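Order emerges. For instance:

***
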Amino acid sequence: MKIKTKPVIMLLLMLLTASAFTHTTVRAQEEKQRDREVVIVMDCSKSMENVDSQYLAFDFVKGLAASLPENCEIGLVTFNNEVCASLPIGSGFTEIEHTLDGLQYRQYGNAGAGMEAAVALFGDEQAEKSVILLSDGEIMMDTGEGTEASVMAFRQAVADARDRGVEIDVLALGEKIQEGYTVYSAADETGGNLYEIADADGLSKYIDRYLFEEWGYRGSHIGKMDGTSAELTVSLPDCMMESAKIILTGEQHNENMTVHCEAGRIDVRKGIKYTVVDISAPVSEDISIQMTSSQSMRIDAYLYAEYECTVDTGHTYEVDTQTARIWVDLRNPMGNSLLNGHLADGGMELYLDGEKENYTVSEGKAWIDKTYIQNSLDQAEARTETQQTETQIQIQIQMEVRFVDPIGNYYGVHSAQEKIIIPAEEKPDIDWFFWSVIAIFITAVTAVFCISHSSRRRQHTISRQMVDMGTAEPLEKGAPKSDFTGKIVVYVIHNKNDIDYPPESINLFARCRRDSITLEWILDTCNIPLDLKGAEKIIFKPGEDRSLVVRNNSKASVLIGRALLTRGQSYNLYYHEKVTFIFDQEDAEIEVHYKDLKPNEK
């Protein structure tokens, strides 16, 4: 049986293409996931004309739609006797503008129908959901039965919104209505806000209020433009962004406006009380805007930027220091590192497994040094995943980037997992025969040494004596029976400032013509500038058999060999022995070695 290969190959190619397309589409949808959904509900009844004769509510909706960030999508519902327009969530500025340009305030206000249509627009996406209701507050139809039906539908729609986690803000225009059926309660019942706005002229300020206060997008007030002629210069932090938006709200009446900037695209959308300059892929960091008008302008200017970024991680491991150098790379869709822009000077924080870490920036990447000990997994117990094999240890970590940029809004996945590979300690093959021979040799040498040393000690044994001060005069007052001999060498083993001091020596035979000396005198004579509390209470005197008598009257710990000296008692220190002083409060350790003099040193 013959099989036709061409149709089979074509079918396989089609399946692979479809699979790749599906994967790409899903990934694109994940990256473009909505973070916020907003539905504007507008009362277009005739009574609205009494509080908004200039249709500034329409202007506010257009301005808000023109100002929205990339991850916020908007829908629109308008109503009078019935729903007169409905645009789905995700509608663009042009659709909203075209819809509103064809509407007027007329007939009655069926708020129930409008709210039902608005709540029905929301899907099951995991996004913040909210409704903004613009109304003069009244629910009224041409008949009592119609009004009752609208009120019941409104209450049910508000209850549905509450159950679905949809907050309703009410922007109530004009004087608050005290009698009849109203829409005000929708805000309180759903956890939203009720704003009483006496004059529709003040609606424009709610554009920046919603963006930067209510919804928490990062943006900044960058200046004002007042008078009949005004100019504004805006400096962008860098040119790594996808877009930057400059929002101008307030009295503008601008007849002439120019924008100077190099960018991939510049869109300007203007209304009665708003202008939005949308700059995509800016090339120049400075933007200049000029306006002229026959009437005085009072404009507030705001700026926010939008970045698309992907987070990538990697690491190297230094065996000698047991340190992993973990790097984090942030790039925009053009492949440029965002850390070559203003983020190199701050604007972000790095968290490793939920803990904030310090980092440095070099080579367009952020670097974190983290110690992972090879022979201990205690540090890895809290990790997501730890695996150990004969050749390596693998620790799964979670790296998260959090942005604190005052004007930057960053989209995309801001975390990544990294598997730290730690080489296991090598276990070398042991040559048991070789090491057995070495052990036997060492044992034999040690035995010979012990026998010889024991013989010498039997010939000349010097026992350490504790001087009994109960019957003798105090050490400081008694006359010395011997003179100082030999020399001492001082070593600073440790001090709290970690300063390296070279060893210093004192020839006691040549320099000491006194009854006793103190550790404080020794340090001063050696020019070692350590202020050790109690050093003046540690006393040295010449003793019998050319020894030094040491007495500790301080709170420091004093050891000769492994023996801890009792405070207030005196002990003999012989040639080639050392005494150690440990000062806990000063975090210091001093060693004094007592040695015989060579012939040429006398």
About this structure: Residues 466-601 form a domain with the Tumour Suppressor Smad4 fold (CATH 2.60.200.20). DSSP finds ten helices and 33 strands in the chain.
